[in-house]
Every structure is written in C-alpha cells, then in structure tokens.
Amino acid sequence: MNGWDRFVETFFNARVLARYWPDIIDGLWVTIALALAIIATGLTSGLALALIRSAGIRVLNWAIIFVVDLFRALPPLVIIVLIYFGLPSVDIAPSGFVSTWISLALVLMAFSEEIFWAGLTSIPRGQWEAARSTGLTFGQTLMNVVLPQALRITIPPLTNRTIAITKGTALGSVVAVTEILGQASSAVSNSYNPSPLTLGAAAYLVLFLPVVILGRWVETKFAWKR
User: Fold this and answer.
1) Is 206 inside any structural domain?
2) Which end of the chain is more exposed for a tag (fewer CB within 10 A), N or C?
3) 8 found inside a domain
4) Does the pLDDT of residue 14 top 90, yes or no?
5) What is the tally of structural domains in the chain?
6) How far apart are alpha carbons 89 and 197 in whole angstroms?
C-alpha cells in the first residue's frame, strides 16, 4: 500500500464513512438547533442591553458594561465548563446542550451589544434633536429614527461576529453534546479510524458555507451606497 492508499484508507475509508454518516447527520440537526437558539437569544439580548444603555441611566450602564466586558474577556469554553460543572453545586444541573447554548448566547450577547451600541452612537446627535423637535418622545426617536439607521450600519460586523461565535457549537462536544464534532469524535473512538472527522468537516461546510455566502450577500444588500 503506497502513501496515497494509506491516506485514503485513513481519512476516506468507505466502510467507516458508510457506517457513521447517519450519526453525523443526527449531529448536524443538533448543531442547527443549537446555533439557531444561540443566534436568537444572543442577538435579542444584546440589542435589549444596547437599548437600555441608550437611556443613560448611570448605574444600569455600569452594570451592562461590566457584564459585557466580562463575557467578552472569558473564553467560551471556560464559560461552558463553569456552567456545566459549577451550577450543580447549587442544585442546578443544566444539560450539555443548555450549558453550551447559554454560554455562547452570553458571548454573542456581549459582542452584539457593543456592536449595536456603536451603531446607535454613530448616528449624529442632530438627528436626535431634529426628531425631538417635531414632538417625538425619546422612545419614539430611538425606535423610529435612530435604530433603523443603526441596524443597517451594524449588519457587516454583526454578521461576521455571529458566524464566528456560532461555529463555537463544536465546543459542546466537551460536555457531551451530540453535535457534529461530538458524533464524529465518538465515531472515531468506536472505529479507530479518523474518517468520521472527514464527514464532520464536510457537515460543517454544508452548514456554514451557505451561511457565510448569505452573510456576504446581506452585507452587500444593506451596505451604505457610496
């Protein structure tokens, strides 16, 4: 057996691929569910914090800045481990799926809050004053004048950050989440062959490559025209 044959036997073993591809598909669905949960909760909570921060209540702003900086500084894997192994000590025992979801949602919340806040503060103060002079309240000005412009500005950095963080679903394998990498790692252990990792890599491409392409299209579609 030459070098090429050994490479194919190691990473593209047809027998192993046929045996374990259904497990990888199962992991793909878990990854999709986890990613959607992270995106929905992370972006929503990040936007909520940015809107609260715009009210200018000093104590709340300090609390938001502390929380945001904390979860931007901590590695996602550390947060997952702290939640999964730490909370049972206070009689709260989240599953691996829930621990990974909450952890990555908190990270996405922190980064998206800063992005949303940067978008809100980039709108010229004159637009606030002009809107208020027409009789709009602070809330009406924020929601109807400032926020739509800010959201358009934040789309490119928000898209990139969201994709980067949701790819972290692979960290769930550390706490026994049966997502793509978890299934692939289990299959490698059972088959004594790394071919399932090739299937896992293919599954990540199938899942995230269209998302990257869609993100690029969204950035182009909603970018400011120069």
Assistant:
1) yes
2) C
3) no
4) no
5) 1
6) 35
- Here the CATH number for the domain that contains residue 112 is 1.10.3720.10
Give the whole-angstrom CA distance, residue 126 versus residue 123: 8
Domain range for 161: 24-176+195-215
* Dihedral class, residue 192 (left if φ above 0, else alpha if ψ from -120 to 50, else beta): left
Asked if 39 and 166 count as a contact pair (C-beta separation under 8 A), the reply is: yes
Instruction: State residue 224's pLDDT score.
Output: 56
What is the rounded CA–CA span in Å between residue 211 and residue 5?
Answer: 34
pLDDT in tens, 85-123: 999 888 888 999 999 999 999 999 999 999 999 989 888
Exposed (0-12), middle (13-18) or buried (19+): which is 180, by Cβ within 10 Å? buried
Identify whether 225 is part of a domain.
no
Q: Please, which pLDDT band fits residue 2 given cuts at 50, 70 and 90? A: low
Chain-wide mean pLDDT for the chain? 88
- pTM of the full predicted structure? 0.87
Total residues found in the chain within this entry:
226
Say whether pLDDT at 56 is over 90.
no
Residue 68 has pLDDT above 60, yes or no: yes
CA atoms within 13 A on the CB side of 204: 18
Return the closest-CA partner of residue 146 out of 19, 54, 81, 77. 54
CA neighbor of 38 nearest in space, from 53, 94, 30, 214? 30
In a domain, 145, yes or no: yes
